[in-house]
Write a structure and sequence with these properties.
The protein is mostly helical. It is built from 8 helices and no strands.
Length: 177
C-alpha cells in the first residue's frame, strides 16, 4: 500500500473507533439473545453464530455494505448471503436488536425516519425470536421472506451459499457481502 492509502485507512479507523463501545454493547446483546433463543428452544449449536457476531457487526455498521434495515427490498442494496445456514440465529438476533434500537430511537425523538413501515409484517422483533424453530415461526435455516428480506438465499447446510453468492457477485446488480 502507498502512504495515501495508509492515511485513508487510519482516518477511517479513527472515525469508526468512536463507535466501538456501542458496537461492543450491541455484540453482547446479540450474543445473549443467541443463548436465550437456543436454550429456550433446546435446539441448535450457538458456537457458529456467536463466533461471527463481531464480523457481522463490522460488515453492517462499518460501511462495508450498502443496506437499509427499514427498506431491505431496495433494488440496488447489497445482498447478504449467509453461507453457513446453521448460523441463522446470528441474523435473527441481530435484526431484532437493530429493530429494537430503531423503535427506541423513534420513541425518544419522535423522528419518523426511524420507523419501519409495515413493521408488524416486515421487521423482526425479539418476540419473534421466541418462535424460533417452531411451526409457523422462524425457520432453522435462512429464508428470504417477510421479516428476513435482508437475506437473499436459503443456504441450508454450511457451504451451500457459496455458489449463489458468487453468482450474484459476478452478474447481479449491487454488491454481495
Amino acid at each position: 500500500m502507498d502512504r495515501a492509502q495508509d492515511e485513508l485507512i487510519a482516518l477511517r479507523y479513527k472515525e469508526l473507533a468512536r463507535h466501538f463501545d456501542s458496537w461492543e454493547k450491541t455484540k453482547d446483546l446479540i450474543d445473549q439473545l443467541i443463548d436465550i433463543i437456543l436454550n429456550y428452544r433446546r435446539s441448535g449449536h450457538p458456537g457458529g453464530s456467536r463466533s461471527k457476531v463481531h464480523g457481522l457487526l463490522v460488515t453492517l455498521l462499518g460501511g462495508g455494505m450498502r443496506w437499509d434495515i427499514r427498506h431491505p427490498e431496495k433494488r440496488f442494496g447489497d445482498r447478504f448471503v449467509l453461507v453457513g445456514g446453521h448460523t441463522i440465529p446470528l441474523i435473527y438476533t441481530t435484526l431484532a436488536v437493530f429493530k429494537e434500537a430503531l423503535r427506541l430511537k423513534c420513541q425518544q425523538t419522535g423522528d419518523k425516519r426511524y420507523q419501519v413501515l409495515n413493521a408488524e409484517k416486515r421487521a423482526l422483533t425479539w418476540e419473534d425470536l421466541l418462535n424460533f424453530r417452531h411451526r409457523g415461526g422462524l425457520s432453522g435455516h435462512a429464508e428470504m421472506e417477510g421479516k428476513t428480506l435482508f437475506l437473499k438465499f436459503n443456504t441450508g447446510p454450511s457451504g451451500h451459499g457459496g455458489p449463489p453468492a458468487w453468482r450474484w457477485r459476478s452478474s447481479g446488480p449491487g454488491r454481495t457481502a
